Amino acid sequence: MPPAEADGPVDRGVALVRAARRGDTLALHDLLDHLTPYIARICRPIALEDGPDATQEALVAVFTSLRSLREPEALYGWVRAISVREAVRVAGRAARARPAELPDVPERGDPQLAADIDDVLARLSPAHRAVLVLRDVEGMDEEAAAALLGVPAGTAKSRLHRARQSFRRAWSA
Predict the structure, then answer these.
(1) pTM above 0.70, yes or no
(2) pLDDT digits (tens, 9 = 90+) for 139-153
(3) Helix axes 51-65, 25-47, angle to 10 degrees
(4) Can you say whether residue 109 is alpha, beta or left, with left for phi > 0 and alpha for psi between -120 and 50 degrees?
(5) Which fold has domain 108-173?
(6) pLDDT band at residue 97 using 50, 70 and 90 as cut-offs
(7) pLDDT score recorded for residue 81
(8) CB-based contacts of 12: which residues, under 8 Å, 6+ apart?
(9) What is the rounded distance in angstroms from the CA atom of residue 73 to the CA atom of residue 59?
(10) What angle do CA 170, 50, 80 make, to 5 degrees?
(11) Percentage of residues in the chain with pLDDT exceeding 90?
(12) Domain definitions of the chain by residue range
């Protein structure tokens, strides 16, 4: 879901894309400012504490790839795809860089776990967090989420099932 707009019939983001592609550097700056909260809202729940890094990586990717956007009207879907890809990549890289230490693994039945959504999300893999965010936060259907993640619809459906199951189990612990 794109950011709320109050500009009337012409979407501000689309207008900024058109101006930026014409070479208007102020419009490019305004476009990136306009997209930052939207990108952060997607990256944070997937990349967790590395959400700001994922947001920055996604903004860089949007900046460097803006000319490849064929239809400015597809801006938010295009940005969503970039954001998810970068968030999963950053989260995976961070997970490999930080080996789990015993104190970082929550004890079964820890009451703090049930109260903290971030803790519960942190226990999911980046791939499971991504499909959960796309379906339950962004409201995408399974086929669209699968296409965005570059996996078959059945894979997205099974990941979503496992992610929801794991989330429920951790939440009720």
Answers:
(1) no
(2) 888 899 999 999 999
(3) 140
(4) left
(5) Arc Repressor Mutant, subunit A (1.10.10)
(6) low
(7) 94
(8) 5, 34
(9) 18
(10) 90
(11) 53
(12) 1-100, 108-173
pLDDT in tens, 36-72: 999 999 999 999 999 999 999 999 999 999 999 999 9
Largest interatomic CA distance in the chain: 57
Using the Cα atoms of residue 65, residue 33, residue 88 and residue 160 in order, give the sign of their dihedral.
negative
C-alpha torsion 92→96→101→107, nearest 10? 30
For residues 63 and 135, what is the distance between their CA atoms, to the nearest angstrom? Answer: 26
For the four alpha carbons of 38, 7, 63 and 149, in that order, the dihedral sign comes to positive
Q: C-alpha distances in angstroms, 165 versus 37, 91, 152, 160?
A: 29, 21, 20, 8
Cβ contact 54:87 at 8 Å: yes
> What is the CA angle 162-53-142, rounded to 5?
30
Residues listed for the chain: 173
Helices 142-149, 153-172: crossing angle, 10 deg rounding: 100
Q: Which fold has domain 1-100?
A: Rna Polymerase Sigma Factor; Chain: A (1.10.1740)
DSSP 11: -
